[in-house]
């Protein structure tokens, strides 16, 4: 019988294992992320060989990789995410507390004999647009009102005349832009003009 050995397929030729080495860190591409130049590695690969880059770092590739993460790694990832979210929540909480603790100061300031201005500070903590509020005061009292920086460098509204009591009332009644400013946060103060030589 004729041998059929010639027809017998030998061991099928193995496709050469394709290993790409990184030009930056010199490791196989799979190991780039463990080196200290991962960002540079990726940038270089994207420039040199976009196809290979996509094989490793495309959206799909990353998704596939995420799916093969060990349970331990997934748990850690979830933990990290939860920690990040808790931190953001804490920050929002602190912002709310700060807002509730913010004071609106309405200060009557004597400029000259029988001449006063009223400075309103702190409305911005309650989301009030100071320029618009100044306009509202100007219209309401038919007087001048503007936004200026005080000595501490904070913006405040300065209204001509002694209208401190009226502004407190406006806040209590929630008139116009002042709606939502809690009246419990309002403090009325008076600044007396210091005369030189006075102790
Ligand atoms: Zn690399």
TrEMBL record:
It holds the Pfam family DENR_N. The keyword Membrane does not apply. Its main location: cytoplasm. The keyword Cell membrane does not apply. GO terms for biological process: formation of translation preinitiation complex; translation reinitiation. GO terms for molecular function: mRNA binding; translation initiation factor activity. Keywords: Cytoplasm, Ribonucleoprotein, Ribosomal protein. Belongs to the DENR family. Interacts with the 40S ribosomal subunit. The SUI1 domain may be involved in RNA binding. This is Translation machinery-associated protein 22. The lineage of its organism: Eukaryota, Fungi, Dikarya, Basidiomycota, Agaricomycotina.
